[in-house]
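To whoever is on call:

I kicked off a structure prediction for a single chain this morning and the downstream step that reads the tokens threw a length-mismatch warning. I double-checked the sequence; it's 132 residues and nothing unusual in it as far as I can see. Pasting both halves so you can look.
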Amino acid sequence: MKSKNTEVSQEKNDNGLPKSKQHIIIEILEYVPDKIVCKRIIKNGGGKLSVVAFDEGEKFCEKTTKYHTYVQIIDGKAEVTIGSKDWELKLGDGMTIPINTVHCFKANSKFKMITTIIKHIGKTKAVVIRSN
């Protein structure tokens, strides 16, 4: 099956998951034929955590990452290209995508993943704690 580059559809009125409520991560989001869909779990100024579902044959490629990004496969397996290197991530596998790196996700079969994006906010000062 030929893969196509698809835009990611964000669920409408996506305010994230209810707080202090138990859930089963792979059931948060269903597969949609011929689509890539995304459900936000948490979002704030420091970043976001989302679940993304890829239908078979879908592809999503970014020119470069702007932020620290971590992905973990929670259903199926994904073909991932980071820079010029190809990887196959399967259930339970995770990977960090370096900042300013071209990357691409291809679904040779359906898969779901968690993405964690951490933004750099301002300068961080080191704090030294001394005991007397």
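Update from on-call: the warning came from a stale cache, not from the record. Cleared it. Sanity check on the structure: The mean pLDDT is 85.
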